Amino acid sequence: MNDPIGIIGVGQTPYRKRNPDRSAGELVRIAVTEALADARIELADIDFVVGGVAPDALSGIADIDKASISLPGKPYLHVNTGGATGSSALLAARTLIDAGRADVVLVVALERMGQATTAQSIFNTIFDPIYEKDFVLTTITMAALRATMLMSRHGFTGEHWAGIASRNFTQATHNPLVVGARPRTVQDVLDSPVLAWPIHLYEACPISEGACAVVLARGDLARSRETAWILGTGAYSDTYAMGDRMHRPEGSLIEMVPLRRAAEKAYREAGITEPLRQVDVLELQAPFAIIEAMAYPALGLCDLDDSRGFVERAIALDIPLTVNPSGGAQAANPVSATALVRIAEAALQVRHRAGDRQVPGARTALATGQGGATQFSTVCLLGSEAP
Amino acid sequence: MTTDDLLVLPGNWNFDYQYFAGETASRFFAELRDRRRIMGRRCPSCRRLLIPARSYCDVCYVETGEWEEVGLSGTLEAFAIILAHFPGLPEPPLAIGFVTLDGADSAILNFVRGVDLTDADAAGARLLRETRVDVVFSAEPAGRITDFHFVISSST
């Protein structure tokens, strides 16, 4: 039995559209300094650094982590799984500790996309140039394609997407790290311009820059701190092309097969059999409402046939757990960092340090990560008590 | 220091590439251009006929087998209607969709043309309702994926 591992420190910059007053390294240093102070350790105590940055072109600097995250005198590992980069980095750190390669690991993820003036044309470059790139594939159209599939198969409407967006953007007003957060009603979302039908402007995640740092430790150090313990994790990949995933026996494109597998693995490890009753807080890496709707059945919170009913109950706050008290990835989505932000927020919840967005009595929190065209999925379960 | 004092330097990335399609995709495009037919390869293990053509099955991780032709009509599985202009991307309005061609076991992406996109809600409702589509080949094929597009099927 391995020593239990937990998060002993969290640091985050605010998430805003651009930071012309800070270099990339300065953003990272703010988050790292805060995480070290939170963990009550020094830089010298760090054995290993794991860093994450997703598409280089978003910052316009190749491998910007070399200039901003890696530290002299420390071993360094770079992770890139698109939007799941931050959570994949944390899972890599966990593996390093489990393998006995380190006792204390600093995990850092950075997003510098405010430097890009044409983010959607950069997202177009992540798609296959032979068969698919010509067709205006971007993160927004990728979401719109799933949305129409969900509308066709499960009877979702624009009101469902607007309802989820309204809840997330309004909850973000309790999170001081989401700069410029404003409440939005369902009608506000539906009245905003259509970007790619059925996706409206006010349900698309904004451009967000920022850095997030998390300190992972085991043993006496973790036991002597207020630690968010890792109860279970899972991470799976899927096929690159969306069309190849349309008719597979294990699940169609909208069934999020890797997320389902990751959740099953994490629940097994944590001994969770009824997630709807046993998990208090969800932090979903869902930059669009449709990802949230697809995540519920994948996380075992409802049957596939009940997806729409569950979304309606979730919007009405009529479910026994709290979704995205931070506002989630829809309100602030620093692409490379966003999946680590979800874990950091889950850690703050079970350590009861989430300020105005604290869920009273939260003991177990689940954070997801999603990368590519839902190609990479991660699940991280955190708890107040050591496993 | 005020905002006006902060240095912001202009920059751009503008590299040229040559994308290597490989043998299987090259044959797929040659069939499109020279014979106006859409061909895929079937996985000998799970028996799925993959369209667009793949040289190996993503699930079974084995080389795909013989070439087979699929129908020039199919089912629209998912679509998006692009209304916003994004710098560097084609001018809206445009409709795109994943279509499972008759006989295929995977879906191929292309433009859906001939739909009035002036009212996006009406166009969206129509595409949710009328899901049968036909392939239309371009007059001057270039051996590219854009050698054809979809239209709502005239037989429905």
How would you sum up this structure, described in words?
The complex is a heterodimer of chains A (387) and B (156). Chain A is of the alpha/beta class. Chain A has 14 helices and twelve strands. A ten-stranded mixed sheet of chain A has the order 3-2-4-7-1-8-12-11-9-10. In chain A, helix 3 crosses helix 14 and helix 11 crosses helix 12. Chain B has a five-stranded mixed beta barrel with strand order 4-5-6-8-7. Chain B starts with 21 loop residues before the first helix and ends with a strand. At the A-B interface, helix 4, helix 5 and strand 5 of A face strand 4, strand 5, strand 6 and helix 2 of B. Strand 5 of chain A pairs antiparallel with strand 4 of chain B.
Structural class of chain B: alpha+beta
The ordered H/E elements of chain A are EHEHEHEHHHHEEEHEHHEHHEHHEE
Individual helix count of chain A: 14
| Helix count, DSSP H or I runs of 4 or more residues of chain B | 2
- Our measurement of the CA-to-CA distance between the termini of chain B, rounded to an integer number of angstroms, reads 66 Å
What proportion of the residues of chain A form beta strands (DSSP E)?
A: 15-25%
User: Which value, in Å, is the CA radius of gyration of chain B?
Assistant: 20 Å
Fraction in beta strands of chain B: 25-35%
* Residue share in helix of chain B: 10-25%
